[in-house]
Amino acid sequence: MKEQKRVALIIESAKRGESAPAYEFYRGSRSGWHDAILDYLDVRNFPTEDIFFLSFHEHRIIPYHATVCDYPKVDRKSPGIVEQREFALKIADFLSANFSIGAVIELHVGKTISDELVPLLEERRYSYELFAEGKKILDKQVVYRELIQTEKANRRIKDMQREKYIMLSALEFSSPVMEADLILEKFDLKANIFGVKPLFQELKMHLKEYKKRLNKAQQMKDEFYSFMEQSDVPEPVQIFFEGIKTQAHLFKDIKKYERLKSQYGKLFAVFTRYLIQQNYVVKYENRISETLMRVQIALLK
Question: Which one, of 56, 52, 49, 92, lies nearest residue 74 by Cα?
């Protein structure tokens, strides 16, 4: 679902200085509340083209990047009701001309703006959020710092959830061994954060045993084929061995097995040792697959 567009309105600060972009002009040692507002918008990656500063001096609506020159200070308590209403109407008209009713208007302002602007927003059916309402200036800064910490915590949770999804996308169970190697390589250092550290340890153990058994099975297989070449085994017998993949398959035709074993006993002994190792390979591959399934379940919780 597409997020609603948001517009941030920020009341001017008392800070003055050299000409600078608005977002720098209103920052400074005397602008703790405004610094906190801007930090809060920054940590949220708020689109700067939708941030505006409000100044009672000439009733200006100042874009985020617009250059601001020094100008006379206006006591926030001095604008009378008539002036507040006039400025609020100008702001409401600006919003109506530039943003659809679906936009959410964030009000980072004091009562000289909100008292007259909020009724106009409601009248024009704009959704709005009034931040740190009713708080004193020093308390407003504390509210924003808390909002910043909450936003950072939420961002960490989102980032972690996103990484979980990336890990889950690797688990297709089409090639368990490759997938296990992949997630261990990419996510081992974060396993504890995701709550799957014990499962990763189990996965490492199964992988280690799998690779050991695989190497052993390959050695047994090489030994078998070498011995078969030396024994000058007829082609029909070679085809028989080629078709056997498991110990169970070896005994499908017991009469044939007994007849061939009586002729090629040593060859059968070597082949049986290979099948035993291959059974272990399958066993640990299945265990890897089972553990990956448990990892997937744990990540989905």
Answer: 56
d(CA 263, CA 268) in angstroms, rounded, equals: 9
Distance, CA of 55 to CA of 90 (rounded, Å) = 12
Element (H, E) at 105: strand 104-108
CA distance 132 to 109: 9
**Tell me, what DSSP letter sits at residue 48?**
G
Give me the amino acid identity at 282. V
H or E element in which residue 281 lies: helix 265-300
Q: Which two tokens stand for residue 245?
A: 């993949």
Which pLDDT tens digit goes with each residue over 98-141?
999 889 999 999 899 999 999 999 999 999 999 988 778 778 88
The burial class, CB within 10 Å (0-12 / 13-18 / 19+), for 250 is: buried
Using the 8-state DSSP alphabet, how is residue 60 labeled?
E
For residue 173, what pLDDT is reported? Answer: 59
CA atoms of 212 and 217, how far apart (whole Å): 9
Residue 9's SS3 state is: strand
Alpha helix (H) residue ranges in 231-264:
235-242, 247-250, 254-263
Contacts of 6 (CB under 8 A, 6+ apart): 46, 50, 103, 104, 105, 106
Strands of 127-130's sheet, edge to edge? 60-63, 51-55, 6-11, 104-108, 127-130
Where residue 173 falls (left for φ over 0; alpha for ψ -120 to 50; beta otherwise) is left
- List residues bridging with 6 in a β-sheet: 104
Closest C-alpha among 274, 267, 256, 163 to residue 213:
274
Q: Are 53 and 26 in contact (CB under 8 A)?
A: yes
pTM here? 0.58
On whether the CB atoms of residues 11 and 56 are closer than 8 A, the answer is no
Looking at residue 287, its pLDDT comes to: 93
281 Cβ contact partners less than 8 Å away, ≥ 6 residues apart: 210, 213, 214, 217
